[in-house]
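ARCHIVE CARD
CATEGORY: sequence design from structure
SOURCE FIELD: tokenized fold
FIELD CONTENT:
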């Protein structure tokens, strides 16, 4: 007789570093300023999927420097 095992979610919040694309309208979760595209100097942002109790809750966007100044709230951002 097989016993059904409950599946436990292992999802955790994490940040990834992505290039800012034209037309994006995100605001930084730390400073509240817009995250803007620039043709002269390519800008990057940190996008974090935030999970609470193993369940996806929201997405947060950060400027690179704001994410660092916040103490890497969702760990080292992966490229």
């Amino acid at each position: 007789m097989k016993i059904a095992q409950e599946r436990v979610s292992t999802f955790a919040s994490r940040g990834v570093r992505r290039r800012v694309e034209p037309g994006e309208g995100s605001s930084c979760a730390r400073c509240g300023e817009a995250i803007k595209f620039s043709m002269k100097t390519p800008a990057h942002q940190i996008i974090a999927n935030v999970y609470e109790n193993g369940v996806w809750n929201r997405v947060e966007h950060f400027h690179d420097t704001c994410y660092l100044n916040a103490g890497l709230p969702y760990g080292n951002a992966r490229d």
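CARD ANNOTATION: The chain has one domain: 14-69. The chain has a mean pLDDT of 88.
SHELF: design records, drawer C
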